[in-house]
Amino acid sequence: MSGTRSLAGRSLVDGAAFAPLLYADVGLSFWGGVDPFSGEVIDRHHPLSGQCLAGRVLAIPSGRGSCTGSSVLMELISNGHAPAALVLAEADEILTLGVLVAQTLFQRSLPVLCIGKEAFGQLHGKAFARVDGTHLSLYDAAPDYTAPPRHDTPAADTHASVELSEHDRALLAGSYGKAAQVAMQIVLRMAHLQGATQLVDITQAHIDGCIYTGPASLRFAQQLVAWGARVRVPTTLNSISVDQRRWRELGIDPALGVPASDLGDAYMAMGAQLSFTCAPYLLDSAPKAGEQIVWAESNAVVYANSVLGARTLKYPDYLDICIALTGRAPLIGCHLEDQRKARLQIELPTLGNLDDAFYPLLGYHIGALAGSRIPLVMGLKQQHPDLDDLKAFGAAFATTSAAPLFHIAGVTPEALDPAQVLDGPLPVLKVSLEDLLLSWHELNSARDPKVDVVSLGNPHFSLSEFAHLARLCQGRKRHPDVVLAITCGRVVLEQARTAGHVGVIEAFGAVIVSDTCWCMLGEPVIPPAARNLMTNSGKYAHYAPGLVGRTVHFASLSECVDAACSATASGRLPQWLQPAASLENATHV
């Protein structure tokens, strides 16, 4: 047929599908980017915003952002709103794992095909696609459809390529129960897809799959409990979807509150600790440099690798608990020294006096530049970023990047001597203040100055952030028309209460919510009539328009407190960004 093109690739999940093609050259985070109940793309910064994925062949370079993307894709497969197939430029573990878990537990699946970066561009402009195992056919118009001939190949032996210990074989044989056996099967299937030949012992896990994305996420956890699941290593839990102690008091609909709380209980029944924080690096159990761990939650992964020097991949939801149940992970990627090297060098301009809005903005911008490459950032050593700065940078970086690690020359532990993270010459990208101004405008989606809600604590607030906020709130009162809410973990909340910060902040008029995070909060914590949010989080400024349908003012913590008092965003650019604005104005004149 005229206009037909055929390509071959690597089948990550076997299957056949024929459907209209939906193509984008930008990676997509399914969590925060796709509605798990309808399949609509809700990432308002993405070129596919507003499109529906259901029943279409989705072609994207890769996923990005949140580890919970696997849960959202599993949910879509379970409820019938998933794409017909996924075609990727590069293998994506988060999305692939979501399909594998749906296949294992629910006997529902979709084909996933990786065709490589060079071939991927050939999909642009095509109207229909047919995936059949390792084959992809593209069409300019709808062909006369007949069921595609199957190009069946023998199923790969996922065990043969991986070296197994006697203990691994016992897990696989079911000697430690059904849950551990299924978990080991999934671990080995992923190891095979990743090209790992060995497994590694891990010392701890952080589970992201405790976020409620819909009925399938609860069914998965409860099935593991029914099979007798018990974690084999110390395991912490990410934020859940509600404040487990106060969701009724906060007015949360029981249709969310009950299953979300039950999901947290299910993971605790497997032996996980009641931590409920997206910032496990703030706990006393935080890993040390060189420690082999399995963490999910994108900001936590990036912080553990980059700031603590621990070793973890950006683990998908559900693979995290499978590894916690076995204590074994594929020895691949950032678990290996040579895979932690920088692949891109970022050079920054001369910087003035910085405020705390700089680091999330820079992380957001660099994440988009880096894609899946590990960057080495030059030019920040003299600015002496603190741990809160690195936390904010990493969370925003993880929002727009698929990379699990960044290096900052002279700052992060593996790059104190930048030569240690180099493996030959790197491509160099220069970032200008004008570039950062464009990202500032992108994060500031609100068009009128009114502020209805101030959102703080994404990721969860640290003790030092509580101290900073208390100083800003001392002797002041929030505007009666503004909600100011902070999310945090229970441990840090008690530390802040003991230090006297909570009393000052509550006297100001703020609400403090534990267990959950802004990526899961909605109405009525956000009043139904609220139109504009304000936040100092680059991560939440990106996700909020899609997650809660509100526009955002992004600024420093000090500006956020000022806005909470006046109900108005000043609209001022930070001092360090003003030279770029002057140049922009001169260009327009």
TrEMBL record:
Residues 163-562 form the Phosphomevalonate dehydratase large subunit-like domain. Residues 28-103 form the Phosphomevalonate dehydratase small subunit-like domain. Gene3D superfamilies: Phosphohistidine domain. Keywords: Iron, Lyase. It comes from the Bacteria. CDD domains: AcnX, AcnX_swivel. Pfam families: AcnX (PF04412), AcnX_swivel_put (PF01989). The keyword Nucleotide-binding does not apply. GO terms for molecular function: lyase activity. This is DUF521 domain-containing protein. It comes from Pseudomonas fragi.
